[in-house]
Design goal:
- The chain is built from 15 helices and 21 strands.
- It is α+β, with helices and mostly antiparallel strands and about 575 residues long.
- Strands 14, 15, 16, 17, 18, 19, 20 and 21 form an 8-stranded antiparallel β-sheet that branches. A 5-stranded antiparallel β-sheet has the order 9-10-13-11-12. A 4-stranded mixed β-sheet has the order 1-4-2-3.
- A hairpin with a 5-residue loop joins strand 11 and strand 12.
Length: about 575
């Protein structure tokens, strides 16, 4: 028989006269709403321990997630274990109000035969067994901390795994993997969760293994290598390498994790000269489906070593990576910016320019649309623009010579200059924190005038779009040649990578954004050979085999059958 519940009125940060306190301060509003909730419960002879469900209503989900522990810590301190969910709304009762709490209580007067228990999400015996194997790092649905632990960097993705494990040691990883495998659960390793979208709705029988607490970097300047632990972010690797005049084949965003980026290939602003990040890997330490810690290198577990370098996350939990670093202390990098009205001229000029520049030059072009937000700088807020950014591994004179044709287009902003290599992480202006988004992607074989026309018909002057950006990244150079001693992803055939992203703060916006991204991809389909890059593949239905040569796909599947015959590991794109 179901547990009867009663509803308590919505609580917010209001004073006794109903006036809003702490306008536009989400942390203070949440704290006062919790205080008022406890007072209302006490007045009714109840307590937080009687909560069956808490619904947090907010107009700013991202800001709320950063302070949600104000609520979850208080619930945990009082022994309350309600089901907690977040519902984003367009507005609340008063201007400046960012959050309100609505709760349901278990009834104080149960009917005969009714058991007074909290209403909890279903927890499987298998998930309980995993928690017992590592009680310090595993939370289950209904536990305090579960909702916070399951949130990916892409907060538009609603991950609802059977359990969430946050290991702080390799021993924790081993314990979780062994317990999950023994009880029929899959394991989905995840560090930051930038590419979590394909996992949505697929984790009900999985342990989400969040690696962000298992981190660390050690640099060996003599061998120009770095040992990177678990869920470490690129910002930490670049900072550790910089004092030695070294850098890495890092991504465009500082808060992307090394492991997921590298296992998927890894496309940097040094890529046209130095190739994929996956092929800079010297060795990996991996927990296998059998719960064994192994080292994979050219001389140890060589087939696993080959598969992990670009083959994705289907083969084990990577707890450490050894990377070859680059002797680059500084670099010419920056961006050029024009208003959208200049797009027809600028996009065509960039397309011609990319056919001629040497492989020391790696750039991208984005057509971008920004909402009028006060936190954005004036040159972005409320504007539609065209941006070219990237890096040139050249001396100052040669770099200026190569940039000349683009500068001749008179950009309204030009930041290209020599900078410390660590500064390259900020050039692309990626969002600085968790962001709800949807996207789509393709690889183009060429960018003729007809392709430019097709792109501008979707996002150029006179159009409307929900996309934050439609981006083209220049490929070719070293990316187009098989790397010596390469892994599963030896090269990236194609001339340009197309990547479209829309911010998706609520489901309706996600649907519109996904449709607009797909429209751009479809418009450019005549110029695509059907290849994918796993780092950019946001759709669950992406066929992972399209990222590889046919021979590599067969070999990857053979490696997986050997190291994970029962399919314990769940990657966002599985081979």
């Amino acid at each position: 028989m179901s547990t009867p519940t009663t509803t308590v009125a919505v609580q917010a940060s209001l004073d006794d006269r109903g006036r809003l306190l702490h306008e536009d301060d989400v942390a203070a509003q949440l704290a006062l709403a919790v205080t008022r909730l406890e007072a209302a419960l006490a007045a009714a002879g109840r307590s937080l321990a009687g909560l069956a469900e808490v619904e947090v209503r907010t107009t700013d989900r991202i800001a709320l997630l950063g302070v949600l522990d104000v609520l979850t810590d208080r619930l945990a301190a009082t022994g309350a274990r309600p089901h907690t969910r977040i519902r984003e709304v367009d507005r609340l009762d008063r201007p400046g109000q960012l959050v309100a709490l609505a709760v349901r209580l278990t009834s104080t007067t149960p009917r005969e035969g009714t058991v007074m228990t909290l209403t909890q999400p279903t927890t499987s015996p298998a998930a309980v067994a995993v928690r017992e194997a590592c009680p310090s790092c595993v939370v289950l649905p209904g536990d305090p901390g579960y909702d916070a632990a399951r949130v990916a960097w892409n907060v538009a993705v609603d991950q609802r795994p059977a359990a969430v494990a946050t290991p702080r040691s390799v021993e924790d990883v081993v314990a979780v993997v062994r317990a999950a495998a023994a009880h029929g659960l899959r394991v989905a390793p995840q560090s930051s969760g930038h590419a979590a979208a394909p996992l949505a709705g697929r984790l009900g029988s999985s342990v989400l293994l969040r690696m962000h607490e298992l981190t660390g970097v050690t640099v060996d300047p003599a061998t120009r290598t770095a040992r990177v632990t678990g869920g470490t972010l690129w910002a930490d690797v670049v900072a550790a390498a910089a004092p030695y005049g070294l850098t890495a084949l890092h991504g465009s965003s500082p808060d992307v994790a090394v492991a997921g980026y590298t296992l998927g290939g890894g496309l940097s602003f040094y890529a046209r000269q130095h190739g994929l990040a996956a092929n800079s890997v010297v060795a990996l330490e991996v927990v296998t489906a059998a719960g064994e810690l192994v080292r994979a290198s050219e001389s140890e577990h060589a087939e696993l070593f080959w598969a992990l370098r670009g083959g994705g996350g289907s083969f084990g939990v990577v707890v450490a990576i050894e990377l070859q670093l680059l002797p680059v202390a500084d670099v010419v990098a920056g961006m050029l910016l024009w208003p959208l009205e200049r797009a027809p001229e600028v996009v065509r000029a960039w397309a011609r320019w990319t056919r001629e520049v040497p492989e020391t030059v790696t750039t991208s072009l984005r057509v971008m649309s920004f909402p009028p937000l006060p936190e954005l700088p004036p040159f972005l807020s409320g504007r539609r623009i065209v941006v070219i950014d990237g890096a040139l591994l050249e001396d100052d004179h040669r770099a200026a010579e190569l940039l000349g044709p683009l500068r001749a287009l008179a950009p309204e902003m030009d930041t290209f200059a020599r900078m410390p290599a660590a500064g390259l992480l900020a050039v692309h202006m990626d969002p600085p924190g968790p962001t709800p988004n949807v996207g789509d992607h393709a690889v183009l074989d060429a960018l003729p005038d007809a392709a430019v026309d097709a792109l501008l018909a979707e996002v150029g002057p006179g159009t409307t779009t929900s996309l934050l950006f439609a981006e083209l990244r220049h490929l070719g150079g070293a990316l187009g040649r098989p790397a010596a001693g390469a892994g599963a992803l030896a090269q990236l055939p194609g001339a340009y990578a197309l990547f479209c992203v829309a911010v998706a703060p609520f489901p309706e916006a996600a649907a519109v954004g996904a449709a607009d991204a797909r429209k751009v991809v479809d418009a450019l389909a005549p110029f695509s050979g059907g290849r994918s890059i796993l780092n950019f593949a946001e759709r669950a239905e992406t066929d992972a085999s399209t990222a590889f040569e046919a021979e590599a796909v067969s070999r990857l599947r053979a490696v997986r059958a050997e190291v994970d015959p029962d399919g314990v590991f769940q990657a966002n794109h599985e081979v």
